[in-house]
Specification:
This protein is mostly helical. It has helices spanning 13-19, 23-50, 53-69, 73-87, 93-123.
């Protein structure tokens, strides 16, 4: 395991920049991320566990830009590694699981942080 820390991988400056002061945009964007991300993580997890590399790669591909949008470049790079490994059709399962579990732990931590931010922004609407 690396010296990776979840709080090093959440930077919402891009979201705030494109929101241009709109708390409603931030709340809506975070809401979509909170809704879609757990589903994608579950899809990837189930696909890895069943050896369905095509589905795992596809779901990882869908998750990747969302992680970038929400300022998670380390997780984005890691999920890209998962995607590329799964695309080979015969990945090193232990390596894929290790990398995916790192992403999942970080993203799940960040989902909690995003829920707090969303609640704070909703209170200001």
């Amino acid at each position: 395991m690396s010296d990776f820390s979840p709080d090093k991988d959440l930077d919402l400056s891009f979201l705030y920049e494109i929101a241009d002061g709109s708390d409603e945009f931030i709340v809506d964007s975070i809401g979509l991320f909170l809704e879609q991300t757990p589903l994608l993580l579950n899809t990837i997890s189930d696909a890895i566990n069943s050896g369905d590399w095509t589905t795992a790669a596809s779901a990882a591909h869908k998750l990747k830009p969302n992680l970038g949008f929400f300022g998670m470049p380390l997780s984005q790079a890691n999920i890209q590694e998962v995607e590329l490994a799964c695309k080979t059709g015969t990945p090193d399962v232990a390596a894929v699981l290790n990398k995916f579990n790192e992403v999942k732990a970080t993203v799940n931590h960040n989902l909690l942080e995003l829920q707090k931010i969303k609640a704070e922004k909703e209170a200001n609407l």
